Amino acid sequence: MYTFRDTIEASEEIVLPSEALKINGEYIENQISGYRTLHVAGREALSPDVVSYGTGVRDGSRIKSKRYPERILVVTYQIIAKTNEEFREAYNKLGKILNVKEAELIFHDEEDKFFIGTPCIMGEVTPGKNAVVGNFEILCADPFKYSVIEYEAKPS
Description:
Layout: H1 7-12, E1 21-23, E2 26-27, H2 28-31, E3 35-41, E4 49-53, E5 62-67, E6 71-80, H3 84-97, E7 103-107, E8 110-122, E9 131-140, E10 146-147
Antiparallel strand pairs: 1-2, 1-7, 3-6, 4-5, 6-9, 7-8, 8-9, 8-10
């Protein structure tokens, strides 16, 4: 009639947050015990920089150029550790994971797309605690996201 599901066993598996970040093929949550992505800013629409110029007697202006600026992703995370040693180990591991250049960045809620980015700023956390909320920034010099699946164009 009904199937039994052990809630204790089910709670031990890692449930990834929707915005969990995969850097170069591995989620941070799967590498650091006590780490959790809380939210990510900067993935939304990006406004282009438009440069225009006015001409003599003509109304309005003309578009000189349009370009998209670099994108900054801000990842807010939480680390909770039981001991000072576990916290230090988790924080050091996070530093090692973020020590990459032009990494492939995939988010759990959009696994078919990726950004290319380099972590550039590590925010400060409250000192003297083993449960902290912090953030880090990732610079995407190329502001666009790309499909994970490559397509081969064939002429018709």
